[in-house]
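Structure in, sequence out. Go:
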């Protein structure tokens, strides 16, 4: 019985590989776009314009405070009511990019605020423009704070990508649901699905640990 299940699972290998590829592609595109947008939003939010900061803060709070499943349903099922037709892949990219951008915005904003005021004032006294201060003084220092939680957030967002299976996109989780209909052993099937996500996320987990240890070592040297 168990042997037959393993044989059936082996026959699902091409489908599983396709699902893993879809998860990786969806995650990479969303994280790249989300990082670019998130950094831009984080910089604008800390730029001193209260109106822009308030609007961005309200949007970030809304996205962070509502279930991702609801967000993706709104994009995929509700937007067509307004004449905006999206396929499942595009809807997944938009939803994940928006989610990533909002969380990354908060991380970047916190990193920028952690830069000592004296550093900014010294750059201002040196005659640097606002863009030069941000590029040459603020961001290099903020990145040491931002990088570890940023990589950790990437891991969480890759796992959140499993929600796209709810709109029919054939990612790794969706493949699990399809396979379990043929192999009536949900524990085994979804254990293997979990292993697939672990394979994708583990390099990022190691990277986050390495960055944290390097940051801690550098901070210790500064203290000494």
């Amino acid at each position: 019985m168990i042997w037959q299940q393993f044989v059936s699972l082996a026959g699902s290998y091409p489908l599983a590989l396709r699902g893993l590829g879809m998860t990786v592609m969806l995650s990479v595109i969303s994280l790249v776009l989300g990082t670019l947008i998130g950094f831009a939003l984080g910089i604008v939010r800390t730029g001193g314009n209260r109106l822009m900061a308030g609007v961005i803060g309200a949007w970030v709070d809304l996205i962070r405070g509502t279930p991702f499943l609801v967000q993706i349903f709104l994009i995929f099922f509700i937007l067509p009511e307004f004449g905006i037709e999206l396929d499942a892949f595009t809807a997944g990219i938009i939803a994940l990019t928006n989610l990533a951008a909002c969380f990354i915005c908060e991380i970047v904003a916190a990193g920028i605020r952690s830069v000592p005021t004296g550093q900014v004032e010294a750059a201002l006294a040196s005659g640097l423009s606002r863009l030069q201060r941000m590029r040459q003084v603020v961001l290099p220092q903020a990145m040491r704070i931002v990088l570890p939680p940023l990589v950790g957030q990437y891991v969480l967002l890759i796992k959140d990508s499993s929600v796209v299976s709810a709109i029919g996109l054939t990612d790794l989780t969706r493949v699990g649901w399809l396979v379990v209909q043929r192999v009536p052993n949900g524990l085994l099937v979804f254990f293997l699905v979990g292993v697939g996500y672990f394979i994708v996320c583990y390099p990022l987990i190691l990277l986050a640990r390495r960055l944290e240890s390097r940051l801690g070592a550098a901070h210790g040297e500064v203290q000494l």
